[in-house]
Amino acid sequence: MSTDAGIPLVNLRRQYAALKDDVAAAIAAVLDSQQFIKGPAVRAFEAAWREALGAAHGSGCSNGTAALSLALQALGVGPGDEVITTAHTFIATAEAICHVGATPVFVDIDPASYAIDPAAVAAAVTPRTRAIIPVHLYGSAADMDAILEIAARHGLAVVEDTAQAHLGRWRGKALGTLGDAGTFSFYPGKNLGAYGDAGFVVARDAAVAETIERLIDHGRQRGSKYLHDVVGQNQRMDDLQAAVLSVKLSHLGGWTGTRRSRAARYDARLKPAGFKVIEPPAASEPVYHLYVVEVADRDAVMAALQARGIGCGVHYPVPLHLQPAFAEMGTGQGGTGPGSLPRAEHAADHVLSLPICGAITEDEVDRVCDAVLAVARPAGRD
Ligand SMILES: *Cc1c(COP(=O)(O)O)cnc(C)c1O
Fold it and tell me: Of ligand 1's atoms, which has the minimum distance to the CA of residue 63?
């Protein structure tokens, strides 16, 4: 273990120290097999992850961004279509919409949960709308009852971006299994992280799942090597990543429990002091990919915490409707500039992510809280 007294945002070194021998054995088994693509390690992880989710259909893929565009493409979303999503997310959510030739329509958030606001979604539906991408940001669910109802009313597809919410639940069902499709990232820092890039796509419908499976692997006809039904891609998961993921999956439930209890400990110190934190919907079981608090003068607070050896981050500082990359696109709410999505903009200006992971100790959380209470003030509601 590290001798330095700092507390990283995510302690992957400590996690690795506890897994080292099992990971080495799993990697050695893949090396011995010399099957690196579409081998048994990928098949085993795919089956295990489907079972963990209670999902009938789903395939491993190369990363969480590809997972989103594969899901959209398989659901028939393409040029001329609008896809409604939240302005307060990682840019990959919206990139994937552009990758299939569709147009992202950014809407505001529910400030309690930080997830997409269903009322804003309903207001943004046009005759061109084809899909909604709710993001279960920070490991806290979007309001899936309301989103599924809006989708059913207008005949829209729902793709859940579950990159931050592995094993989170909504009314007892795993996030990622409620919509037409659900996508996961296994980027190293996610709740379930590979040692490289990897992702997963769940689909409710067997035919959509089969299309996704084909798109992932060059559009190959099942059982055939050089007969291609559709123009596909190469977005496969590889066996080394799958082997690492299978080792880690057996620990994910325990790590998730630790995240929840550490989040409760943060809540107990920070809420009474007046700090706004994530307020997950009552129907959900959050998994705290990030622990987020709103502070005044955020960038100065971050610098002060970092000076005390406390890792922190901002997820995310610039909402998507204000990103230069999307300057030409509409928000669906009558305006593209600053002020058009005020709740997302308020969050972007004030959110601060504090250290949390499956390996952080209670004592470390207490030390972070002491530091936050010493250097930060609650953000006003501007
Ligand atoms: C990480 C992340 C992605 C992208 O996943 P990659 O595996 O890095 O491509 C997409 N959406 C959200 C919300 C994420 O946090």
Answer: 7
Cβ atoms of residues 262 and 252 within 8 Å: no
Spatial separation of the C-alpha atoms in residues 303 and 41, rounded to whole Å: 43
Peptide bond into 187 cis (omega under 30): no
Instruction: Quick: pLDDT tens for 21-62.
Output: 999 999 999 999 999 999 999 999 999 999 999 999 999 999
On the question of pLDDT at 125 being above 60, the answer is yes
Domains of the chain, start order: 13-106+114-245 (3.40.640.10), 252-375 (3.90.1150.10)
Pocket test for ligand 1, best of 70, 183, 187, 290 (most atoms within 8 A of CB): 187
CB 211 within 8 A of CB 229: no
Does any ligand 1 atom lie closer than 6 A to the CB of residue 183? no
Q: Parallel, antiparallel, or unpaired for β 82-86 and 58-61?
A: unpaired
Structure tokens at 298: 């955020």
Between CA 169 and CA 295 the distance in angstroms is 28
> Could you read off the pLDDT of 143-165 as tens digits, one per residue?
999 999 999 999 999 999 999 99
64 lines ligand 1 (CB under 6 A): yes
Distance from CA of residue 145 to its chain's centroid? Answer: 19
